[in-house]
Write a structure and sequence with these properties.
Elements: H1 3-56, E1 80-82, E2 88-90, H2 94-106, E3 114-116, H3 121-137, H4 142-152, H5 160-163, E4 166-169, H6 180-188, E5 194-196, H7 203-206, E6 214-217, H8 220-228, H9 233-240
Antiparallel strand pairs: 1-2, 3-4, 4-6, 5-6
The structure holds zinc ion (ZN).
Length: 244
């Protein structure tokens, strides 16, 4: 072969490789577009599914009443899933909690975190006793200390935190009601199935003082009805007799 012929063959090979590569990358790009299109569709169908699951949610576990008169049985247990390294939530409801927090962040509400979620009954016992001790220390009687403690901390087994369906946000402080996060929750939490569990105007019925930081999962359908009719969980259960 002459030098020229070799050059022609080499150039030919280079052109062929170039052509093959162009087609290859075109294909890759097309795949990428198709994948992201699929992902968009997947997100939409997940959203539909999420709505359907929430709409179909009429199961009793969502609206289980836990309060002083309705304590959980001693052997109560629930399947939990991790919110993060330390906090846990009911496995059946955690996706709604996570979706709510993600959507808040997407809408620039970044000053929000979960202070407390599921608590086992033993831990609740520790918190309860700590609070009583605090009041005893400042000179209150045992009875007074228990009364004062019960206003904010449920007796072990009577807290929604034992149930795994409640979360406390930020500093567990009334100042939370002045935050953007609180305003957002008031407007949107029911979409994800959450309610403000201890509203200001229901203290007499719930037996718990106003807690702007405490939100309870009850499922989308129940949450919407409760908000529409301004019913707290106790009133809702009484009205719809859903607890049977
Ligand atoms: Zn709470």
């Amino acid at each position: 072969m002459t030098k020229n012929k070799v050059l022609v063959v080499v150039i030919g090979i280079v052109i062929m490789i170039a052509v093959v590569m162009v087609y290859f990358f075109k294909g890759q790009k097309k795949n990428l577009i198709e994948t992201s299109y699929l992902q968009d569709n997947l997100q939409i169908s997940n959203k539909d599914k999420f709505n359907n699951i929430a709409k179909a949610g009429e199961l009793d576990w969502k609206i289980r009443l836990v309060n002083e008169k309705n304590p959980l049985p001693e052997d109560f247990s629930v399947e939990l899933a991790n919110i993060d390294n330390t906090r846990k939530f009911d496995k059946r409801a955690i996706k709604y909690l996570k979706e709510m927090l993600e959507d808040m962040k997407k809408q620039s509400i970044t000053n929000i975190w979960i202070q407390s979620a599921y608590r086992n009954i033993e831990y609740q016992r520790v918190l309860y006793q700590k609070s009583i001790n605090r009041y005893l220390k400042i000179g209150k009687s045992q009875e007074e200390s228990e009364e004062l403690t019960k206003k904010y901390i449920n007796k072990p087994g009577t807290s929604e935190h034992n149930l795994g369906l409640a979360v406390d946000f930020n500093e567990v402080d009334e100042g939370f009601e002045n935050t953007k996060a609180y305003k957002w929750l008031q407007e949107n939490a029911s979409i994800y199935g959450f309610i403000l569990r201890y509203p200001k105007d229901k203290e007499e019925i719930t037996g718990i003082e106003y807690e702007p930081w405490h939100w309870r999962y009850v499922g989308q359908e129940h949450a919407k009805k409760m908000n529409e009719e301004s019913l707290c969980l106790e009133e809702y259960l009484q009205k719809y007799d859903n607890n049977k």
